[in-house]
Amino acid sequence: MKKVLRAFAFFACLFLLAGSALGWEGRMAGMGGPAGLIADESDYLVHPAALADGTGVGFYASYGFAYTDIQKADWKNDWKIPDSQLIYSPDGDQWEHKASLGTAFTLPKGRMAIFLEYVNKQGELEGNDPIDTSGWDDYKIDSDLGNLALRLLYAVPVSPRVKLGGEVELAYRSEENRIKGNYPGTPHSYQNYSFPALPEAYYFQDKYLYGRPCDATYMQAAFKGSVEANAGPVEVLFTGRYGFLFASDNELELRSSFAGPIASPTMDGDVEGYAAGADLWFRYKLRPDVTLPFVVRADYSRKEYDGSSDLSLLIPMPYEYENIEKNFFLEIGGGVEKKIEKGLIAAGLYYDYLSSKSDLDLRLLIFRWMNQPVPKTKEHRLVLKTAAEKEVSPTATLRGGLEVFHGWADMESDVRGFLGSNLYRQSADIDGSRWGAGVSLGASFKTAAMLVEPYLNIAYQKTDLDGDGYNNIGPGFATDNEYKRTEWSYGAGFSVKF
Q1: pTM
Q2: Which of 13, 40, 138, 369 has the highest Cβ tally under 10 A?
Q3: Which residues, 6 or more positions from 381, have their beta carbon under 8 angstroms from its beta carbon?
Protein backbone atom coordinates (compact mmCIF):
# COMPACT_ATOMS: atom_id res chain seq x y z
CA MET A 1 0.00 0.00 0.00
CA LYS A 2 2.93 2.38 0.67
CA LYS A 3 4.07 1.88 -2.93
CA VAL A 4 0.56 2.71 -4.12
CA LEU A 5 0.50 5.92 -2.09
CA ARG A 6 3.93 6.97 -3.36
CA ALA A 7 2.81 6.38 -6.96
CA PHE A 8 -0.33 8.42 -6.40
CA ALA A 9 1.69 11.28 -4.86
CA PHE A 10 4.01 11.27 -7.89
CA PHE A 11 1.15 11.59 -10.38
CA ALA A 12 -0.53 14.23 -8.20
CA CYS A 13 2.60 16.37 -8.36
CA LEU A 14 2.83 15.82 -12.10
CA PHE A 15 -0.70 17.09 -12.71
CA LEU A 16 -0.37 20.03 -10.34
CA LEU A 17 2.78 21.15 -12.06
CA ALA A 18 1.19 20.65 -15.48
CA GLY A 19 -1.49 23.25 -14.94
CA SER A 20 -4.68 24.21 -13.22
CA ALA A 21 -7.24 21.56 -12.31
CA LEU A 22 -10.77 21.32 -13.64
CA GLY A 23 -13.41 19.44 -11.67
CA TRP A 24 -17.09 18.80 -12.21
CA GLU A 25 -17.94 15.80 -10.04
CA GLY A 26 -18.79 18.12 -7.15
CA ARG A 27 -21.89 19.21 -9.07
CA MET A 28 -23.35 15.73 -9.25
CA ALA A 29 -22.28 14.82 -5.70
CA GLY A 30 -24.05 17.93 -4.44
CA MET A 31 -27.31 16.52 -5.83
CA GLY A 32 -26.79 12.96 -4.56
CA GLY A 33 -25.24 11.59 -7.77
CA PRO A 34 -28.26 11.51 -10.13
CA ALA A 35 -26.32 10.06 -13.07
CA GLY A 36 -28.59 9.62 -16.07
CA LEU A 37 -31.37 11.71 -14.53
CA ILE A 38 -29.59 15.04 -15.13
CA ALA A 39 -27.24 15.65 -18.06
CA ASP A 40 -23.73 16.60 -16.96
CA GLU A 41 -20.28 17.01 -18.45
CA SER A 42 -19.08 14.07 -16.34
CA ASP A 43 -21.39 11.71 -18.26
CA TYR A 44 -18.42 10.65 -20.35
CA LEU A 45 -16.98 8.83 -17.34
CA VAL A 46 -19.90 6.42 -17.87
CA HIS A 47 -20.26 6.80 -21.65
CA PRO A 48 -16.90 7.63 -23.29
CA ALA A 49 -18.65 8.62 -26.54
CA ALA A 50 -19.94 11.75 -24.78
CA LEU A 51 -16.33 12.98 -24.56
CA ALA A 52 -16.61 14.05 -28.22
CA ASP A 53 -19.10 16.77 -27.19
CA GLY A 54 -16.37 18.84 -25.52
CA THR A 55 -13.82 21.30 -26.87
CA GLY A 56 -10.46 22.69 -25.85
CA VAL A 57 -8.19 21.53 -23.03
CA GLY A 58 -9.25 20.93 -19.44
CA PHE A 59 -7.64 19.75 -16.23
CA TYR A 60 -9.69 18.00 -13.56
CA ALA A 61 -9.40 17.18 -9.85
CA SER A 62 -11.68 16.15 -7.00
CA TYR A 63 -11.49 14.80 -3.47
CA GLY A 64 -14.14 13.34 -1.21
CA PHE A 65 -14.41 11.39 2.02
CA ALA A 66 -17.19 9.56 3.81
CA TYR A 67 -17.51 8.34 7.39
CA THR A 68 -20.01 5.62 8.33
CA ASP A 69 -21.00 5.10 11.96
CA ILE A 70 -22.24 1.51 12.31
CA GLN A 71 -24.29 1.84 15.47
CA LYS A 72 -25.64 -1.69 15.48
CA ALA A 73 -25.00 -4.90 13.53
CA ASP A 74 -26.72 -7.55 15.64
CA TRP A 75 -26.94 -11.21 14.66
CA LYS A 76 -29.04 -13.62 16.76
CA ASN A 77 -28.84 -17.40 16.43
CA ASP A 78 -31.16 -18.91 19.04
CA TRP A 79 -30.94 -22.71 19.25
CA LYS A 80 -34.08 -22.81 21.45
CA ILE A 81 -32.38 -24.91 24.11
CA PRO A 82 -31.04 -23.69 27.50
CA ASP A 83 -27.84 -21.65 27.44
CA SER A 84 -27.54 -21.87 23.64
CA GLN A 85 -28.49 -18.45 22.38
CA LEU A 86 -25.81 -16.62 20.45
CA ILE A 87 -26.09 -12.87 19.91
CA TYR A 88 -23.24 -11.05 18.19
CA SER A 89 -23.60 -7.29 18.77
CA PRO A 90 -20.60 -5.51 17.25
CA ASP A 91 -20.40 -1.85 16.37
CA GLY A 92 -17.80 0.12 14.50
CA ASP A 93 -17.12 2.52 11.68
CA GLN A 94 -15.79 2.86 8.16
CA TRP A 95 -13.76 5.58 6.42
CA GLU A 96 -13.61 6.11 2.69
CA HIS A 97 -11.29 8.49 0.80
CA LYS A 98 -11.42 9.04 -2.95
CA ALA A 99 -9.50 11.38 -5.23
CA SER A 100 -9.13 11.89 -8.96
CA LEU A 101 -6.93 13.89 -11.30
CA GLY A 102 -7.30 14.18 -15.04
CA THR A 103 -7.08 16.09 -18.26
CA ALA A 104 -9.07 16.15 -21.53
CA PHE A 105 -7.83 17.59 -24.81
CA THR A 106 -8.61 17.75 -28.52
CA LEU A 107 -6.71 15.70 -31.10
CA PRO A 108 -6.67 16.19 -34.88
CA LYS A 109 -9.47 13.63 -34.92
CA GLY A 110 -11.57 13.32 -31.80
CA ARG A 111 -10.82 13.96 -28.12
CA MET A 112 -8.85 12.10 -25.48
CA ALA A 113 -8.95 12.12 -21.67
CA ILE A 114 -6.57 10.69 -19.06
CA PHE A 115 -7.59 10.15 -15.44
CA LEU A 116 -5.92 8.83 -12.32
CA GLU A 117 -8.26 7.70 -9.54
CA TYR A 118 -7.60 6.50 -6.00
CA VAL A 119 -10.03 4.97 -3.49
CA ASN A 120 -9.36 3.59 -0.02
CA LYS A 121 -11.91 2.10 2.40
CA GLN A 122 -11.04 1.05 5.93
CA GLY A 123 -13.50 -0.40 8.39
CA GLU A 124 -13.60 -1.96 11.84
CA LEU A 125 -16.21 -3.82 13.85
CA GLU A 126 -15.62 -4.79 17.49
CA GLY A 127 -17.64 -6.88 19.90
CA ASN A 128 -17.42 -8.69 23.24
CA ASP A 129 -20.31 -11.13 23.47
CA PRO A 130 -21.13 -14.17 25.62
CA ILE A 131 -20.95 -17.65 24.08
CA ASP A 132 -23.51 -19.84 25.95
CA THR A 133 -21.81 -20.70 29.28
CA SER A 134 -18.24 -20.82 27.92
CA GLY A 135 -17.37 -17.16 28.51
CA TRP A 136 -17.00 -14.00 26.49
CA ASP A 137 -15.82 -13.77 22.88
CA ASP A 138 -13.78 -10.58 22.45
CA TYR A 139 -13.29 -10.11 18.69
CA LYS A 140 -12.39 -7.57 16.02
CA ILE A 141 -13.19 -7.57 12.30
CA ASP A 142 -11.01 -5.28 10.13
CA SER A 143 -11.16 -4.43 6.43
CA ASP A 144 -8.84 -2.40 4.18
CA LEU A 145 -9.65 -2.04 0.47
CA GLY A 146 -7.57 -0.01 -1.98
CA ASN A 147 -7.88 0.87 -5.66
CA LEU A 148 -5.54 2.89 -7.90
CA ALA A 149 -6.72 3.17 -11.51
CA LEU A 150 -5.43 4.80 -14.69
CA ARG A 151 -8.14 5.49 -17.29
CA LEU A 152 -7.61 6.41 -20.95
CA LEU A 153 -10.66 7.59 -22.92
CA TYR A 154 -11.07 8.47 -26.58
CA ALA A 155 -14.10 9.62 -28.61
CA VAL A 156 -14.66 10.73 -32.19
CA PRO A 157 -17.70 11.98 -34.13
CA VAL A 158 -18.40 9.80 -37.16
CA SER A 159 -21.34 11.87 -38.39
CA PRO A 160 -23.29 14.92 -37.19
CA ARG A 161 -25.61 12.58 -35.26
CA VAL A 162 -23.34 9.71 -34.17
CA LYS A 163 -20.25 9.61 -31.93
CA LEU A 164 -18.16 6.62 -30.94
CA GLY A 165 -15.94 6.23 -27.90
CA GLY A 166 -13.87 3.78 -25.91
CA GLU A 167 -11.97 3.43 -22.68
CA VAL A 168 -9.10 1.34 -21.38
CA GLU A 169 -8.58 1.12 -17.63
CA LEU A 170 -5.68 -0.44 -15.76
CA ALA A 171 -6.14 -0.76 -11.99
CA TYR A 172 -4.20 -2.09 -9.01
CA ARG A 173 -6.47 -3.37 -6.25
CA SER A 174 -5.92 -4.74 -2.77
CA GLU A 175 -8.32 -6.46 -0.36
CA GLU A 176 -7.55 -7.30 3.26
CA ASN A 177 -10.14 -8.62 5.71
CA ARG A 178 -9.28 -10.09 9.12
CA ILE A 179 -11.26 -11.68 11.95
CA LYS A 180 -9.39 -11.89 15.26
CA GLY A 181 -10.54 -12.92 18.71
CA ASN A 182 -10.12 -15.21 21.71
CA TYR A 183 -11.52 -18.61 22.62
CA PRO A 184 -14.05 -17.91 25.39
CA GLY A 185 -12.86 -18.83 28.83
CA THR A 186 -9.26 -19.48 27.71
CA PRO A 187 -6.09 -17.42 27.10
CA HIS A 188 -5.91 -18.70 23.51
CA SER A 189 -6.60 -16.65 20.38
CA TYR A 190 -7.78 -17.29 16.84
CA GLN A 191 -7.54 -15.54 13.47
CA ASN A 192 -9.92 -16.06 10.54
CA TYR A 193 -11.25 -19.41 11.78
CA SER A 194 -11.90 -21.51 14.88
CA PHE A 195 -10.21 -24.88 15.31
CA PRO A 196 -12.96 -27.37 14.39
CA ALA A 197 -12.43 -29.72 17.34
CA LEU A 198 -13.59 -27.01 19.76
CA PRO A 199 -17.28 -26.39 20.53
CA GLU A 200 -16.88 -22.72 19.57
CA ALA A 201 -16.39 -23.79 15.96
CA TYR A 202 -20.15 -24.26 15.76
CA TYR A 203 -20.57 -20.52 16.26
CA PHE A 204 -17.60 -19.08 14.42
CA GLN A 205 -19.04 -19.27 10.92
CA ASP A 206 -21.65 -16.69 11.99
CA LYS A 207 -18.88 -14.08 11.95
CA TYR A 208 -18.60 -14.52 8.18
CA LEU A 209 -21.84 -12.55 8.02
CA TYR A 210 -19.63 -9.47 8.54
CA GLY A 211 -16.94 -10.28 5.96
CA ARG A 212 -14.85 -12.98 4.34
CA PRO A 213 -11.17 -13.19 5.40
CA CYS A 214 -8.57 -12.63 2.70
CA ASP A 215 -5.38 -10.77 1.87
CA ALA A 216 -5.27 -10.33 -1.90
CA THR A 217 -3.74 -8.02 -4.49
CA TYR A 218 -4.35 -8.08 -8.22
CA MET A 219 -4.39 -6.06 -11.41
CA GLN A 220 -7.54 -5.45 -13.42
CA ALA A 221 -7.81 -4.51 -17.09
CA ALA A 222 -11.17 -3.13 -18.21
CA PHE A 223 -12.50 -2.00 -21.58
CA LYS A 224 -15.52 0.02 -22.73
CA GLY A 225 -17.14 0.51 -26.10
CA SER A 226 -19.60 3.39 -26.40
CA VAL A 227 -21.95 5.08 -28.86
CA GLU A 228 -23.96 8.31 -28.71
CA ALA A 229 -26.72 8.87 -31.25
CA ASN A 230 -29.12 11.80 -31.75
CA ALA A 231 -32.30 11.82 -33.82
CA GLY A 232 -34.46 14.91 -33.42
CA PRO A 233 -35.67 15.12 -29.81
CA VAL A 234 -34.16 11.73 -28.89
CA GLU A 235 -30.64 11.12 -27.53
CA VAL A 236 -29.38 7.59 -26.87
CA LEU A 237 -26.15 6.60 -25.13
CA PHE A 238 -25.05 2.98 -24.87
CA THR A 239 -21.86 1.57 -23.34
CA GLY A 240 -20.76 -2.03 -22.88
CA ARG A 241 -17.86 -2.98 -20.61
CA TYR A 242 -15.73 -6.00 -19.74
CA GLY A 243 -12.77 -6.50 -17.44
CA PHE A 244 -10.59 -9.31 -16.13
CA LEU A 245 -8.07 -9.89 -13.35
CA PHE A 246 -4.40 -10.83 -13.72
CA ALA A 247 -1.05 -10.70 -11.88
CA SER A 248 -2.71 -11.67 -8.60
CA ASP A 249 -1.52 -12.85 -5.22
CA ASN A 250 -3.78 -14.22 -2.49
CA GLU A 251 -3.01 -15.25 1.07
CA LEU A 252 -5.24 -16.66 3.81
CA GLU A 253 -3.73 -16.82 7.30
CA LEU A 254 -5.44 -19.24 9.67
CA ARG A 255 -4.18 -19.03 13.25
CA SER A 256 -5.09 -20.95 16.40
CA SER A 257 -2.82 -20.68 19.44
CA PHE A 258 -4.83 -23.51 21.01
CA ALA A 259 -4.08 -26.03 18.27
CA GLY A 260 -0.52 -24.97 17.44
CA PRO A 261 1.43 -24.77 14.17
CA ILE A 262 -0.15 -27.74 12.39
CA ALA A 263 -3.54 -26.02 12.56
CA SER A 264 -2.19 -22.52 11.74
CA PRO A 265 -1.36 -22.63 8.03
CA THR A 266 -0.84 -19.79 5.62
CA MET A 267 -2.51 -20.69 2.35
CA ASP A 268 -0.99 -19.05 -0.73
CA GLY A 269 -2.76 -18.82 -4.08
CA ASP A 270 -4.19 -16.33 -6.53
CA VAL A 271 -7.37 -14.59 -7.65
CA GLU A 272 -9.13 -15.03 -10.98
CA GLY A 273 -12.24 -13.35 -12.26
CA TYR A 274 -14.03 -11.03 -14.63
CA ALA A 275 -16.74 -8.38 -14.69
CA ALA A 276 -19.16 -7.39 -17.45
CA GLY A 277 -21.95 -4.89 -17.77
CA ALA A 278 -23.74 -2.26 -19.82
CA ASP A 279 -25.43 1.15 -19.51
CA LEU A 280 -28.26 2.43 -21.69
CA TRP A 281 -29.47 6.02 -21.31
CA PHE A 282 -32.40 7.36 -23.29
CA ARG A 283 -33.34 11.06 -23.18
CA TYR A 284 -36.44 12.40 -24.92
CA LYS A 285 -36.89 16.19 -25.14
CA LEU A 286 -40.63 16.62 -24.71
CA ARG A 287 -40.38 20.42 -24.81
CA PRO A 288 -37.46 22.84 -24.87
CA ASP A 289 -37.66 22.97 -21.06
CA VAL A 290 -38.72 19.37 -20.29
CA THR A 291 -36.68 16.19 -20.83
CA LEU A 292 -37.71 12.62 -20.00
CA PRO A 293 -34.66 10.47 -19.08
CA PHE A 294 -34.67 6.67 -18.88
CA VAL A 295 -31.79 4.44 -17.72
CA VAL A 296 -30.92 0.75 -17.65
CA ARG A 297 -27.78 -0.54 -15.97
CA ALA A 298 -26.62 -4.14 -15.47
CA ASP A 299 -23.43 -5.46 -13.85
CA TYR A 300 -22.18 -8.99 -13.21
CA SER A 301 -18.90 -10.06 -11.61
CA ARG A 302 -17.26 -13.33 -10.64
CA LYS A 303 -14.10 -13.78 -8.57
CA GLU A 304 -12.41 -16.98 -7.47
CA TYR A 305 -9.93 -17.02 -4.58
CA ASP A 306 -7.85 -20.11 -3.84
CA GLY A 307 -4.83 -21.19 -1.86
CA SER A 308 -2.89 -24.09 -0.35
CA SER A 309 -0.20 -24.58 2.29
CA ASP A 310 3.20 -26.26 2.17
CA LEU A 311 2.29 -27.97 5.45
CA SER A 312 0.64 -30.62 3.28
CA LEU A 313 4.20 -31.68 2.28
CA LEU A 314 5.02 -32.44 5.92
CA ILE A 315 1.66 -33.85 6.92
CA PRO A 316 -0.08 -35.97 4.26
CA MET A 317 -3.40 -34.24 4.74
CA PRO A 318 -5.13 -31.43 2.81
CA TYR A 319 -4.48 -27.74 3.48
CA GLU A 320 -6.41 -25.92 0.75
CA TYR A 321 -9.37 -23.70 0.09
CA GLU A 322 -11.44 -22.15 -2.70
CA ASN A 323 -13.98 -19.35 -2.55
CA ILE A 324 -16.14 -18.20 -5.47
CA GLU A 325 -18.03 -14.91 -5.28
CA LYS A 326 -20.75 -13.82 -7.71
CA ASN A 327 -22.53 -10.47 -7.76
CA PHE A 328 -25.29 -9.08 -9.96
CA PHE A 329 -26.89 -5.64 -10.10
CA LEU A 330 -29.74 -4.33 -12.26
CA GLU A 331 -31.28 -0.85 -12.33
CA ILE A 332 -34.22 0.29 -14.45
CA GLY A 333 -36.02 3.60 -14.14
CA GLY A 334 -36.72 7.07 -15.40
CA GLY A 335 -38.07 10.46 -14.53
CA VAL A 336 -38.35 14.05 -15.64
CA GLU A 337 -35.93 16.99 -15.78
CA LYS A 338 -37.39 20.49 -16.06
CA LYS A 339 -35.49 23.68 -16.64
CA ILE A 340 -36.56 26.66 -14.56
CA GLU A 341 -35.29 30.23 -14.58
CA LYS A 342 -31.52 29.94 -14.04
CA GLY A 343 -31.79 26.39 -12.78
CA LEU A 344 -33.52 23.01 -12.97
CA ILE A 345 -35.50 20.46 -10.98
CA ALA A 346 -35.63 16.70 -11.57
CA ALA A 347 -37.16 13.55 -10.10
CA GLY A 348 -36.92 9.87 -10.97
CA LEU A 349 -38.17 6.50 -9.76
CA TYR A 350 -36.00 3.39 -10.12
CA TYR A 351 -36.18 -0.34 -9.52
CA ASP A 352 -32.96 -2.05 -8.37
CA TYR A 353 -32.24 -5.75 -8.05
CA LEU A 354 -29.15 -6.81 -6.10
CA SER A 355 -27.84 -10.32 -5.48
CA SER A 356 -24.62 -11.85 -4.16
CA LYS A 357 -23.43 -15.37 -3.50
CA SER A 358 -20.27 -16.84 -1.99
CA ASP A 359 -19.33 -20.56 -2.12
CA LEU A 360 -16.52 -21.65 0.19
CA ASP A 361 -14.70 -24.99 0.34
CA LEU A 362 -12.00 -25.12 3.06
CA ARG A 363 -10.10 -28.31 3.86
CA LEU A 364 -7.82 -28.51 6.88
CA LEU A 365 -6.54 -31.84 8.25
CA ILE A 366 -9.67 -34.00 8.75
CA PHE A 367 -11.98 -30.97 8.69
CA ARG A 368 -13.91 -29.66 5.72
CA TRP A 369 -16.09 -26.55 5.74
CA MET A 370 -18.21 -25.76 2.72
CA ASN A 371 -21.22 -24.01 1.15
CA GLN A 372 -22.32 -20.51 2.15
CA PRO A 373 -21.03 -19.25 5.50
CA VAL A 374 -21.18 -15.83 3.81
CA PRO A 375 -24.94 -15.46 3.29
CA LYS A 376 -26.49 -15.48 -0.15
CA THR A 377 -28.48 -12.26 -0.47
CA LYS A 378 -31.20 -10.96 -2.79
CA GLU A 379 -32.92 -7.61 -2.65
CA HIS A 380 -35.65 -5.86 -4.63
CA ARG A 381 -35.46 -2.10 -4.09
CA LEU A 382 -37.45 0.97 -5.09
CA VAL A 383 -35.48 4.23 -5.18
CA LEU A 384 -36.80 7.79 -5.45
CA LYS A 385 -34.29 10.46 -6.50
CA THR A 386 -34.93 14.20 -6.60
CA ALA A 387 -32.51 17.02 -7.42
CA ALA A 388 -32.55 20.75 -7.99
CA GLU A 389 -30.15 23.63 -8.57
CA LYS A 390 -30.52 27.41 -8.87
CA GLU A 391 -28.15 30.16 -9.90
CA VAL A 392 -28.44 32.79 -7.17
CA SER A 393 -25.88 35.20 -8.63
CA PRO A 394 -23.48 35.39 -11.58
CA THR A 395 -20.82 33.79 -9.33
CA ALA A 396 -22.80 31.31 -7.21
CA THR A 397 -25.13 28.36 -7.75
CA LEU A 398 -26.82 26.32 -5.00
CA ARG A 399 -28.04 22.75 -5.38
CA GLY A 400 -29.41 19.82 -3.42
CA GLY A 401 -30.71 16.29 -3.72
CA LEU A 402 -32.79 13.75 -1.83
CA GLU A 403 -32.75 9.97 -2.21
CA VAL A 404 -35.14 7.59 -0.44
CA PHE A 405 -35.25 3.81 -0.89
CA HIS A 406 -37.08 0.79 0.45
CA GLY A 407 -35.86 -2.73 -0.16
CA TRP A 408 -37.27 -6.21 0.36
CA ALA A 409 -34.28 -8.37 1.26
CA ASP A 410 -33.70 -12.11 1.65
CA MET A 411 -30.59 -13.66 3.22
CA GLU A 412 -29.76 -17.39 3.19
CA SER A 413 -26.83 -19.28 4.69
CA ASP A 414 -26.10 -23.00 4.59
CA VAL A 415 -22.93 -24.19 6.35
CA ARG A 416 -21.70 -27.77 6.31
CA GLY A 417 -18.74 -28.81 8.42
CA PHE A 418 -17.21 -32.25 8.31
CA LEU A 419 -15.01 -33.48 11.16
CA GLY A 420 -13.93 -36.82 9.84
CA SER A 421 -17.15 -38.58 8.91
CA ASN A 422 -19.28 -36.48 11.27
CA LEU A 423 -21.41 -33.82 9.61
CA TYR A 424 -22.37 -30.55 11.24
CA ARG A 425 -24.90 -28.46 9.35
CA GLN A 426 -26.48 -25.12 10.13
CA SER A 427 -28.76 -23.14 7.85
CA ALA A 428 -30.80 -19.95 8.13
CA ASP A 429 -33.30 -18.22 5.88
CA ILE A 430 -34.27 -14.72 6.94
CA ASP A 431 -36.02 -11.86 5.18
CA GLY A 432 -37.41 -8.43 5.86
CA SER A 433 -36.79 -4.82 4.98
CA ARG A 434 -33.85 -2.54 4.31
CA TRP A 435 -34.61 1.15 3.91
CA GLY A 436 -32.80 4.44 4.02
CA ALA A 437 -32.66 8.09 3.02
CA GLY A 438 -29.94 10.55 2.11
CA VAL A 439 -29.68 14.31 1.68
CA SER A 440 -27.02 16.13 -0.33
CA LEU A 441 -26.17 19.83 -0.54
CA GLY A 442 -23.72 21.54 -2.86
CA ALA A 443 -22.70 24.78 -4.47
CA SER A 444 -20.60 26.31 -7.23
CA PHE A 445 -18.51 29.43 -6.71
CA LYS A 446 -16.96 31.14 -9.73
CA THR A 447 -13.98 33.44 -9.98
CA ALA A 448 -12.28 34.76 -13.07
CA ALA A 449 -9.98 31.74 -13.21
CA MET A 450 -11.62 28.99 -11.14
CA LEU A 451 -14.87 27.23 -10.30
CA VAL A 452 -15.05 25.50 -6.89
CA GLU A 453 -17.81 22.97 -6.19
CA PRO A 454 -18.04 21.78 -2.57
CA TYR A 455 -20.68 19.33 -1.32
CA LEU A 456 -22.01 17.61 1.83
CA ASN A 457 -23.92 14.33 2.21
CA ILE A 458 -25.73 12.67 5.11
CA ALA A 459 -27.59 9.35 4.98
CA TYR A 460 -29.30 6.83 7.25
CA GLN A 461 -29.92 3.13 6.63
CA LYS A 462 -31.68 0.43 8.61
CA THR A 463 -31.88 -3.35 8.06
CA ASP A 464 -34.37 -5.59 9.89
CA LEU A 465 -34.42 -9.28 8.89
CA ASP A 466 -35.70 -12.35 10.74
CA GLY A 467 -36.62 -15.95 10.06
CA ASP A 468 -35.89 -19.57 10.89
CA GLY A 469 -33.00 -21.94 10.56
CA TYR A 470 -31.93 -25.52 11.24
CA ASN A 471 -29.12 -27.13 13.22
CA ASN A 472 -28.44 -30.87 13.01
CA ILE A 473 -26.59 -31.31 16.33
CA GLY A 474 -28.05 -34.32 18.14
CA PRO A 475 -31.58 -34.98 16.93
CA GLY A 476 -31.62 -31.68 15.07
CA PHE A 477 -33.70 -28.63 15.89
CA ALA A 478 -35.05 -25.39 14.45
CA THR A 479 -33.47 -22.04 15.27
CA ASP A 480 -34.66 -18.45 15.47
CA ASN A 481 -32.46 -16.01 13.54
CA GLU A 482 -32.37 -12.22 13.27
CA TYR A 483 -30.12 -9.61 11.69
CA LYS A 484 -30.59 -5.96 12.60
CA ARG A 485 -28.30 -3.14 11.50
CA THR A 486 -28.42 0.65 11.66
CA GLU A 487 -25.85 3.12 10.37
CA TRP A 488 -25.35 6.81 9.67
CA SER A 489 -23.07 8.08 6.90
CA TYR A 490 -21.53 11.55 6.57
CA GLY A 491 -19.59 12.76 3.56
CA ALA A 492 -17.97 15.88 2.17
CA GLY A 493 -15.75 16.83 -0.70
CA PHE A 494 -15.04 19.30 -3.45
CA SER A 495 -13.96 19.66 -7.05
CA VAL A 496 -12.28 22.58 -8.75
CA LYS A 497 -12.37 23.94 -12.28
CA PHE A 498 -10.04 26.41 -13.93
Answers
A1: 0.91
A2: 369
A3: 351, 352, 353, 354, 405, 406, 407, 408, 434
